[in-house]
Amino acid sequence: MFRTLPVRVIFLCICVSVTAFRLVDEAFVNTLIEKLKAYNGQYPREKVYLQTDRDVYVPGETIWLKGYLFDGILHNVDSVSRVLYVDLIDARKSEVVQQIKLKATQGQAPGQLALPDSLPTGTYLLHAYTSWMRNFPEAYYFSKTLTLIRSDNKPTANATPPNLKPDVQFLPEGGNLVLGLSGRVAFKAVSTTGKGLDVEGFVLNTAKDTVMGFSSLHRGMGNFALQPEPNQTYTAFVRLTGDPAKTYYPYPLPAVQPVGFVMTVDNLSNPNVVKVFVQHNKPAPADAAAGRITLVAQTRGVVVHAAEGPLSRKSLLIQIPRDKLPDGITQLTLFDEKNTPVSERLIFIDRRDRLRVALTPAKATVRPREAIEVDVTVTDPEGKPAQATLSLAATDLNMAPTMASHPASIVSHLLLTSDLVGTVEEPGLYTDDANSDRAMQADQLMMTQGWRRFTWTDVLAGTIPPIRYPLEEGITLTGQISRANSKPAEKANLMFMLAKKDSTREVLMGQADEKGRFVTGDLDLYDSTGVFIQALGERGNNRGYLITLDQVLKPTVRVTRVPYNPFLLGPEAIEEFLKRTNEYLEIERQIRRNKEVLLEAVTVKAKREKPDSRRMLYSTPDRTVKFDDMNRSGALTFLDVVRSRVPGVQVTGSGFDARVQIRGAVNMGGPIEPAFFLDGMPISKDAVINIPVSDIEAVDVLTGGGATIMAGSNGAGGVINVLTRRGSPDYDYSQTPTPGTLATRLMGYTPVREFYAPRYDKAAGPRSAVDGPARPDFRATLHWAPMVKTGPDGKVRVTFYASDAKTKLRLVAEGTTLSGKVGTSKAEVGVE
User: Fold this and answer.
1) CB count, 10 Å around CB of 200?
2) Of 349, 333, 340, residue with least CA distance to 419
3) Strand 315-321 vs strand 183-190: parallel, antiparallel, or unpaired?
4) What are the start-end ranges of the E strands in 108-196?
């Protein structure tokens, strides 16, 4: 009989009730806890979920989306990472065709992705992740399958050809088949696209005797009992259920181990406990009290239960109280007498510890273009009002078909699929309250789907993979600086100049580490930003440096299998979808063209000169030296050009040791050097003197009041403002960069656009619009609201308008509280 072990220290203050046990076992369990704590502390996880307005688009449309970021252990809202990357990937080419960055605030990142007109018909993936998540395999990224359809290249339905050999895996429960011990063998059959296939079959032994028959229970998954006998090997023969040809395919079962453990888990029969049955055939220890085996249950890296029993018993029963197991996937691991993991099993716990979200339309049916009012009510698991932020999409069921009958939700992703390897078909099925078979189906999934959070060998060995990508609290620039001989330029000084879209400039200074790596972060950049990086070598020796910026490297992806993408539209529905969507896209294009024509008709009588943001504080300098090829000739630094060309400015010395003084700039301590600026931003003389003269457009000199306005008390010696060609609003960043520099353009955050939908008079007929001339309205997405916030009473009302289509509208709301409680809900409204 197993007995509960005391767990004294639980990471993140999760406590487990305990009873006394032997010190050696207590030490082992506490060692596991401490190692898990260290592993999670040094290698914490993040989770991302992405809601989109729909699953099917036409090139040229906009994907409206909302990202949610969570801590990977307790599922609290992640407020550390503030940059969410979203990649649009062509699944067949394994190619990123578009990337955007969304700004996350308190774990929420609304935005949109405009689809280029040139994209071909096909299956696409949306990958969403943070910089920190790039330290982990891509399996940790959020992934969503989308379909794009073009009028000139319509898709065909995915179909499994008859008599196609299924891909079948056989997985002994707990890990191994062991001689003489009865256990269960789970199996999963899928097509070449990953779709689960219903199969049936039988198992033969070496003598070709039938041992048992079997058939799948759920989406190609099932299990059967097997007790291996001596001198026998086993082969399963499988066929597709209903195959008229009755073609069977052979599959060898895993090899039988002569000695070992078998673990069988019952997570279905008892509402209060999970039963774990352990058998083994190892020799009894000489000292019956010496050999102990240990069962550890952990959820997302937190040990929630531990028990131990004597090795002298050949079979044992452990009962785990359900009230100790939080929602989500729990990993059960059996350790032998040497504290080596020998058997594992996953179980799914669903205590419904989540938000209750209700969408209540004021009217079940409305007329075309009539206002639709929807009351949103959110309560916590105890039924109390909850303040939450949700994203809500309203789409035309005919125009915006889903690619799955039970698609992923924020609940199914957070609790289930984010902790599993591989694709889970119809993930929403396992958390749908209306599905009475969800517990059995989830148990089949747990027996056949792999765990991906960590392995005990890494935890026990203290193996922490190298951390390459930082946590981002803003846009971050990272890269490498090397010498001409390809060796890292250790401790090299760097200057970063950022030319923002609003014409403002920002100058930053930094230094590479001993490996030549550099990072500058917490930047608040939007849209396209010009980036100029200058290596500031000693005494101007910077031209042998090579600067590489990670952000300009195209992301790489590896899609091993084009994901199963069920297409639920028939040919007629596809034609209607394309017709209506393209009509609305053409209306939007015509509106843009009309605006362009109106703009072209405006007569411009005078050109207003664009102000130079680099001179924003003074507009007109006291003196200016414009740089050209003639005066740059032979100059090592900008001071060589300024020398003798500006009255009142004295330059002494030469090269990088030159000194400068503006006439009259003295105090009791002697001459005062001026304050230096680069494109209107303060900078040290040592930094600015390294700027190649070929990159300088002009130098402004300020004295008196202008210098005081520019530099305050630091302007007592005057001001010298160096204006670079790259800092000019008109600079072309495609020009060849000077050696030792890097000039490029990067995308910052994608500005969040407001979803536009026409507003119609509540009492109007189907063709009288208040906001302009009547035009056809057959939008696929009627409303998108990414930041719907409930009040202290847990309620909020959302209002939008129906289109011209007589159809059914699907409403989907998903969201979270600040404490990480999530919820989702659906509703429908008829338009007649």
Assistant:
1) 18
2) 349
3) unpaired
4) 108-114, 122-129, 142-148, 167-172, 177-178, 183-190
User: Which of the four pLDDT bands, split at 50, 70 and 90, describes residue 740?
Assistant: confident
CATH number of the domain to which 630 belongs: 2.170.130.10
Assess if residue 226 is contained within a domain: yes
From 265, 280, 261, select the one nearest 319 (Cα to Cα).
Answer: 265
Q: Tell me the two tokens of residue 47.
A: 């989770």
Task: Pull the structure tokens for residue 212.
Answer: 């048992």
What pLDDT band is residue 608 in, cutting at 50, 70 and 90?
A: low
288, burial (CB in 10 Å: exposed 0-12, middle 13-18, buried 19+): exposed
Contacts of 803 (CB under 8 A, 6+ apart): 368, 369, 396, 777, 778, 779, 782, 831
Please give the Cα distance from 387 to 384 (Å, whole number): 10
What does the CA dihedral 497, 501, 504, 505 come to, rounded to 10 degrees? 0
Does residue 584 sit within a domain? no
User: Which uninterrupted H or E stretch holds 329?
Assistant: strand 328-335
Q: Could you give the CA distance from residue 280 to residue 574 in angstroms, rounded to a whole number?
A: 58
Model pTM score: 0.82
Report the number of secondary-structure helices (H) and strands (E) in the chain. 9, 49
| 629-654 pLDDT, tens digit each | 888 887 888 998 998 888 889 998 88
* Sequence letter at residue 24: V
Query: Which domain, by its residues, includes 286?
Result: 167-349
Output b/e per residue, 723-757; b: 16+ Cβ within 10 A.
bbbbbbeebeeeeebbebbbbbebebbbeeeebeb
Structure token digits, residue 151: 């009028």
User: Cα 136 to the chain's mean position, in Å?
Assistant: 12
Q: Exposed (0-12), middle (13-18) or buried (19+): which is 668, by Cβ within 10 Å? A: exposed
User: Would you say residue 205 lies in a domain?
Assistant: yes
Q: Which of 678, 703, 734 is the last residue of a domain?
A: 734
Contacts of 307 (CB under 8 A, 6+ apart): 2, 3, 4, 5, 294, 295, 318, 320
- Please identify, among 293, 315, 349, the residue that sits at the C-terminal boundary of a domain: 349
pLDDT of 5 above 60: no
User: Which of the four pLDDT bands, split at 50, 70 and 90, describes residue 771?
Assistant: very low
What's the gap between Cα 119 and its chain centre?
Answer: 23
Backbone Cα Rg of the chain: 33
**Six token digits for residue 482:** 């090397």
Q: Is 430 within a domain?
A: no
Residue 9 pLDDT class (50, 70, 90 cuts): very low
d(CA 558, CA 94): 6
How many domains does one find in the chain?
2
Q: What Å distances lie between residue 521 and 129, 473, 476, 715, CA to CA?
A: 18, 7, 4, 29
> In Å, what is the CA distance from 134 to each residue of 46, 139, 454, 558, 596?
10, 10, 16, 14, 42
User: Cβ neighbours of residue 713 under 8 Å, at least 6 residues apart?
Assistant: none
* CATH code, 179: 2.60.40.1930
Q: How far apart are CA 496 and CA 724, in angstroms?
A: 13
Other C-beta atoms closer than 10 Å to the C-beta of 603 total: 4
The DSSP secondary-structure symbol of 282 reads P
Q: Given the DSSP bridges, would you call strands 649-652 and 808-816 parallel, antiparallel or unpaired?
A: unpaired
Distance CA 530, CA 502 (A): 11
**Residue 785's closest CA among 78, 31, 110?**
110
Q: 458: which residues sit within 8 A by CB, 6+ positions away? A: 39
Model confidence over 695-704: pLDDT tens digits?
889 999 998 8
